[in-house]
Design a protein that fits this description.
Keywords: Amino-acid transport, ATP-binding, Nucleotide-binding, Transport. GO terms for molecular function: ATP binding. Belongs to the ABC transporter superfamily. With 228 residues, the protein is of the alpha/beta class. It has a single domain, classed as P-loop containing nucleotide triphosphate hydrolases (Rossmann fold), CATH 3.40.50.300. The strands form two sheets. The protein has a six-stranded mixed β-sheet, with helices on both faces. α3 runs parallel beside α6. It is globular and about 45 Å long. The protein starts with a strand and ends with a helix. The chain binds adenosine-5'-triphosphate.
């Protein structure tokens, strides 16, 4: 079943248009990679889906029109976002960050602690005192605590040391294997994306220019649109 459906999505920052027609969909249980070079509209697409910025076009989640809802309702429709730049409540403790996000479902504090033991060890510490990697774990933990039907990760491994990256990727694999959660991933690592994603959607200049099975993504297409 289609969980997220985006068609002809457009969005602007003031007078400057950033999206000109993004098409993408995520099925229940599916992992989709959203790819493209810097500045091509990936984060803007994510923000539009989460109703953090105004957009137009078709935007439905579990059959409901997200554009028809007030934006705060859309945030609770079942989309868990791990935003670019991993924003947590710096003054709150790790545990407080997690409980503030909690909504009923299979993901509880214990389960998040099992996924990221480091968060259990640092439960009483202020989020501001965590390392970059630990803050990213907390941002993922917070999103999971909302028990979303779709988890969106925007550059979750950006700027992290290789061993921490590996830990984050392992956790994403665990989330997928254990709960079959639908995931939309923005990341620069083609290698990691090809290990986990079922499909890829590529953006260039604010438009979808390619979509298909991850296994159908040829070196020519990645070279042209992703630049590796
Ligand atoms: P990156 O990987 O660099 O984050 P991206 O694919 O996520 O790239 P976006 O951040 O969505 O790209 O940017 C798409 C376009 O919108 C770019 O031209 C960018 O300069 C512009 N843009 C992004 N954020 C803003 C903003 N707050 N105000 C004005 N323009 C913006």
């Amino acid at each position: 079943m289609t969980l997220l459906e985006v068609q002809g999505l457009t969005a602007s920052y003031g007078a400057s248009q950033a999206l000109f027609g993004v098409d993408l969909s995520v099925d229940e249980g599916e992992v989709v990679a959203l790819m493209g070079r810097n500045g091509m509209g990936k984060t803007t697409t994510v923000k539009s889906i989460c109703r953090m910025i105004p957009s137009e076009g078709r935007l439905t989640f579990a059959g409901r029109d997200l554009h028809a809802m007030p934006s705060h309702r859309a945030a609770r429709a079942g989309i868990g976002l791990v935003p670019e730049g991993r924003r947590c409540f710096a003054g709150l403790s790790v545990a407080e960050n997690l409980t503030a996000a909690a909504r009923p479902g299979p993901w509880s504090m214990d389960r998040v602690h099992a996924l990221f033991p480091r968060l259990a060890e640092r439960a009483g510490q202020r989020a501001a005192s965590l390392s970059g990697g630990e803050q990213q774990m907390l941002a993922i933990g917070r999103a999971l605590m909302t028990n979303p039907r779709l988890l969106i990760l925007d550059e979750a491994t950006e700027g992290l040391a290789p061993v921490v990256r590996a830990e984050i990727w392992a956790a994403i694999h665990t989330v997928r294997q254990e709960t079959g959660m639908a995931i939309l991933l923005v990341d620069k690592s083609l290698k990691e994306l090809s290990r986990i994603a079922d499909r890829a959607v590529i953006l260039a200049r604010g438009r979808t220019v390619w979509a298909g099975a991850m296994t159908a993504l040829s070196p020519e297409i990645t070279q042209r649109h992703v630049g590796v």
